Amino acid sequence: MKMTETPQPGDFVLLWSPQHKLFLRLQPELEPGRRFSTHLGDLELGELLRTPYGGRVRTHLGHEFVVLRATLVDFLLHGIERRTQIIYPKDSGYVVLKLGLGAGRRALEVGTGSGALTAVLAQAVAPTGRVYSYEREARFLEIARRNLERLGLLSVVELKLKDAEGGVDEREVDAAFIDSREPWRCFPAVYEALRGGAPLGLLVPTTNQAAQALAELERAGFVDVEMLEILVRFYKPVPERLRPQDVMTGHTGYLIFARKALARP
Fold first, then answer.
1. What phi and psi values does residue 176 have, to the nearest 5 degrees?
2. Where do the domains of the chain lie, and which CATH numbers do they carry?
3. In the 8-state DSSP scheme, what is residue 165?
4. pTM score
5. pLDDT tens for residues 70-88?
6. Run of H or E including 138
7. What is the DSSP letter of 76?
8. Helix segments in 152-232, DSSP class H
């Protein structure tokens, strides 16, 4: 019989209660008796190592938490270190599908930022694929590096402090994504890096940026252009009063996708 799995030092865990969610990483070395303070009371962290996922722990005030395995989405929403706007899971999940990413694929990213999308791309192509991520700001690149290290994904990523407008090092990559203020400035370099027919994705926050990007894509040799916006509405999961949440994120960005067409002979 398979034993129930328990959290291990270094794991990210989610502690759930009807009143609150707590996201934390168990330190590699937990000292006996070390405690974690919450507004519902203190938890003895060593007890988490003895509690199976799905099990329950109590604070010293008697409040109960369920121990859950944290996912990448939990990290992006609750645990990521960031100094830039991130691409949210509602958008990044669709990006992975549209770019056709999977284990062994090679993806190019322009605009690392805090590394949120970088982590999603890396998880998609791991363990044998590669993500080549370009960023102009050294301070952002270091934040992304720390986030990827915490997630154990840095081995799949090559972080490059370089302006991709001047060209990129890779060729014959399977897909590319650009997250920058003027993505069309990178179209020539990205076009050269992509395999024939390979997909390109962009995210821009405003309609005037989107219009400029659409006009430049055709001139740059891309076809099969698609533009969309993803809106997600959460519901209050209470059977007696099931209805939408009071607050909804109305807009994050416009997603644009296209594919590289080879030049006419």
1. -145, 150
2. 12-70 (3.10.330.20), 75-260 (3.40.50.150)
3. G
4. 0.90
5. 999 999 988 889 888 889 9
6. helix 138-151
7. I
8. 187-193, 207-220
